[in-house]
Amino acid sequence: MSTKDWLEKDYYKILGVSKDAKPDEIKKAFRKLARENHPDQHPDDKESERRFKEISEANSVLSDSAKRKEYDDARSMFGSGFRFPGGGQPGRPGQGTGVNLEDLFRNSGEGGFGDLFGGLFGGQQPTGRRSGRGPRRGGDIEGEVAIPFADAAAGVTVGVQMVSEDACEACRGTGAKAGTVPQVCPTCQGSGMQSSQSGGFAVSEPCRQCRGRGLIIETPCPVCAGTGRARSTRTMQVRIPAGVDDGQRIRIKGKGGAGENGGAPGDLYVSVHVTPHPIFGRNGDALTVTVPVTYSEATLGAEIDVPTLADGTVRLRVPAGTPNGRTFRVKGRGVGKPGDAGDMLVTIEVEVPKHLSEEAKAALTEYQRLAAEPNPRTHLMRS
What we know:
Elements: H1 3-8, H2 11-15, H3 23-37, H4 46-62, H5 65-78, H6 101-106, H7 113-121, E1 141-147, H8 149-154, E2 156-167, E3 183-184, E4 193-198, E5 201-206, E6 215-216, E7 229-240, E8 249-252, E9 268-274, E10 281-283, E11 286-294, H9 295-300, E12 302-307, E13 313-318, E14 327-330, E15 344-351, H10 358-371, H11 378-382
Parallel strand pairs: 1-9, 11-15
Antiparallel strand pairs: 2-7, 3-6, 4-5, 8-9, 10-11, 12-13, 14-15
Helix pairs in contact: 3-4
């Protein structure tokens, strides 16, 4: 779709939504109109076919956040009533005048038509005004690491092996075979763009001969086949922060693929997989652990040793009469760096003995007689 379409067509009006419509509203409006105007519903109806294409075009712009912003910026700059010169009799009101917009904006204080629209629509500059071989940002790289539970809780530095495309070492990124050099494209004079006349105004597009590179490679590099890029493998030390969750994606800015023509490098994204721990679990920054105690410890009270994730054990006092499932909090022994860690949640699990000696049975029977405990299920019978 052309710059002319972006400036002349009101995509919001076509879909029947407001300019501040949410993505869900746009999607709902498009689906409704698409069903109503689909060619299958109206065979041989040219108007419905035209309307369907118009709706689809509007949706393709407004449903994409980046395109929508560019579209809004362009219409904000020139206003919704802006019209490009069209075909017709020169000088007649409302008809084409043969005006070259490059000439129209040349003395406006801007860098010309290409400068005005290049940033909005991702285009390049017109031939002879600015080079088409501008800086290009490097690509983002994905990596994965698997780390133990304890390292995820405390943080760790790991080596991540990355495969990316960097400048070819054989040709140093030129794309030309060693001993040869690329030649400036004779068609675009190295700008990567060429101009043509369409509908009374100048249009710039990528040069067809050099495909927008601005250079012609007569003898391509045999290693990279003239692309100037080659796959490389390297290992980078990456710091995994304390408290990272399983499946979390970490971004390391500027550590991705190398840029072209002085462009900034991309980013590195590392997906972290955490190996489960046989004893400990997590609840946010809290470390969780279940600790068994004997029936007598829960009844009479006791001091027990509880394991920690990093450094040995911690002493925990279990009060007399502690019920099964009660949770105690141990400060500062959870997930995170020392001094800034969460807490450890210790849940008590009372173990009932499966085998008793005759003496133990007799003692427990005597205890039952002496305690004379009321039936704890009485309230159940009343309901």
